[in-house]
Amino acid sequence: MVTTRHQRSTQKMLPCSALGEVRVDQVLRALGEPVRLEIVRALARAEQPMNCGAFGLTVSKSTSTHHFKVLRESGIIAQYDEGTARYSELRTTELEQRFPGLLTAVLTAE
Amino acid sequence: MVTTRHQRSTQKMLPCSALGEVRVDQVLRALGEPVRLEIVRALARAEQPMNCGAFGLTVSKSTSTHHFKVLRESGIIAQYDEGTARYSELRTTELEQRFPGLLTAVLTAE
DNA sequence: GGCCTTGTACGATTAATATCGTACTAACCG
DNA sequence: CGGTTAGTACGATATTAATCGTACAAGGCC
After folding, report:
1. pLDDT beyond 70 at B1
2. Beta carbons of B23 and A110 less than 8 Å apart
3. Residue B19 confidence class, pLDDT cut points 50, 70, 90
4. How far is B82 from chain A (nearest CA, A)?
5. pLDDT band with cut points at 50, 70 and 90 for residue A11
6. Which of A34, A69, B68, B86 is 20 to 30 Å from B16 at the Cα level?
7. Which positions of chain D lie under 7 Å from any protein Cβ?
8. What is the DSSP letter of B69?
């Protein structure tokens, strides 16, 4: 069974932007970068949280960290720590509520 | 009656990217810039071609030219010349075909 | 022709972003 | 404790992108 966000609330959730404060151009900018789009697509395929190392990105660790941070600050993903790993998940529901159809359209594309 | 694209085909259409060759991240990047998003929104509201001067942009002429070029090269707008004016229009249909729901979602946002 | 309008082209500058390496922290395992 | 794992933080660099000013081109008008 997949752990839900609520169950994790006692754990180390990292601060992520309230989606109400995020503008759409910020989200588009965040998604308009190949590495970050790859991350988002992988999360969508997985349908469950993934730890940062599991993406098989071809960039350095520090560059990965940077991209995850951009995604988190633009409200696209949430992250929490578990042991030495940091897990990321798509904020699918919140995104859909704030920008209806956007994530679906981006994931559908091509 | 609104002039269609076909009727203008004998005029000076500028080369714009074939949408088949445009990747979604390029489109997202193009839309993720406030001035360009403003242009796209104005075109959507107008529902007809607008000349570049009609947008009331607060940037210089050369900067405008740059942004229109980015939008054109990413397949989002088409442009044609008429007299001394250059008109832009959204490639609504082609965009919808290539990236279903994307433009609508972006225009709906907020 | 001269002049205004509309917009481009080019080059320079500045600002933003992507990238990396190194040093570091925290959790776990022996 | 020391070593390993997973990832961050910081500082540097390199690349990309936004911005502008000036010079230019083409159409329309007198």
Report:
1. no
2. yes
3. confident
4. 31
5. low
6. A34
7. 5-11, 17-23, 26-28
8. H
Q: B29 and A27 in contact by Cβ < 8 A? A: no
Name the residue in chain B with its Cα closest to that of A22: B110
The domain ranges of chain A are: 22-108
Interface of A with B in 44-103 (CB under 8 A): 98-102
Closest to B56 (Cα-Cα) out of B71, B41, B72, B78: B41
For residue B58, the tally of other CB atoms under 10 A from its CB is 9
The predicted model gives B89-104 an average pLDDT of 97
pLDDT for B11: 61
CB contact under 8 A, B28 and A34: no
Flag the least confident range among A16-25, B59-68, B75-84: A16-25
Question: Per this entry, what is the length of chain A?
Answer: 110
Pick the closest to residue A98 from A78, A76, A73, A70 (CA basis): A76
pLDDT greater at residue B80 or residue B5: B80
Largest CA distance in chain A: 39
The rounded distance, in Å, linking the Cα atoms of B68 and A3 is 46
pLDDT of residue A20: 82
The separation, in Å, between residue B83 CA and nucleotide C1 C1' comes to 20
Residue B63: which nucleotide is closest by CA–C1'?
D19
Report the predicted TM-score, pTM, of the whole model to 2 decimal places.
Answer: 0.90
Query: Is 2.40.440.10 the CATH number for A22-108?
Result: no
